[in-house]
Amino acid sequence: MPRKPVHLTADSRRPEGRQVIWEAVRRLRRFRLKDVEEATRLKETTIKTYLTGLTNAGYLRRVDEQQHTGHARYRPAWWELMQDVGVDAPRVRKDGTEVTQGRAREQLWRTMRIIGEFNYRELAVQASTEAHPVAESDVKHYCRYLHHAGYLICTRPSAGRNEARYRLVPRGYTGPQPPQIQRVRQVWDPNLQQVVWTQGGGHE
Predict the structure, then answer these.
(1) pLDDT tens digits along 111-163
(2) What's 59's domain CATH number?
(3) For residues 85-101, average pLDDT
(4) Last residue of a domain, which of 34, 49, 81?
(5) CA-CA distance, 153 to 172, in Å (whole number)?
(6) How many distinct structural domains can be found in the chain?
(7) High-pLDDT (> 90) share of the chain, %
(8) Strand partners, 152
(9) Range 101-116 average pLDDT
(10) C-alpha to C-alpha distance for 113 and 170, rounded to whole angstroms
(11) End-to-end CA distance of the chain
């Protein structure tokens, strides 16, 4: 399946939108709104909403407030990156508060890469934090779909009280964003921008 252009797939309500903007911010370090717009090809309102959230959360600093020049125009504002927390885009609302929806899947995806072989109970324990615990039922469901989609290999089938064991395949890590299980029972990879598995259809 061909990859769609960024401007057709990214949106402020989806992780891809935040990620595309954050990657541009990290590259530019100090920038104007139009610099990010040119780098991402996203809508100005989408970019401005996320930049406002990053500023309110302390990741960015507004370094040049808009000022009247006497010609009915405004000098463009500049932002500066203050906290570079790595490749994963901060999940923040416009007021700077953290978005927690989807956090569990991010923790699972990151932990799979770190711990090697696991069963779903072990993964739940390792991926949970005091602030963001992960339910075993969600882990079991997620592992099953990632196994179907080819991200995980089953190293030992379940037998009696012994749970099935998995590990991430060598090329299974496609990027920092966790594969998403969609309601139509398919797996969407936001790193590849494509559906990688559908129920009854196998791998794309």
Answers:
(1) 999 999 999 999 999 999 998 899 999 999 999 999 999 999 999 999 999 99
(2) 1.10.10.10
(3) 90
(4) 81
(5) 10
(6) 2
(7) 71
(8) 168
(9) 93
(10) 10
(11) 7
- Between 53 and 72, the higher pLDDT residue: 53
The reply to whether 98 falls in a domain is: no
List pLDDT tens digits, range 2-36: 333 333 333 333 446 888 999 999 999 999 999 99
Q: What are phi and psi of 9, to 5 degrees?
A: -115, -25
**Structural domain of 114:** 103-198
In one letter, which amino acid is 90? Answer: P
Q: Is residue 139 situated within a structural domain?
A: yes
Angular region, 200: left φ>0, alpha ψ -120 to 50, beta rest: left
Residue 188 to residues 13, 90, 137, 185: CA-CA distances in angstroms? Answer: 16, 21, 20, 10
115 within domain boundaries = yes
R_g over Cα of the chain:
20
Are 63 and 108 within one domain? Answer: no
**Residues whose CB falls within 8 Å of the CB of residue 34, separated by 6 or more in sequence, listed in order:** 76
Together in a domain, 107 and 182: yes
d(CA 132, CA 102): 11
Q: What is the mean pLDDT of the chain?
A: 86
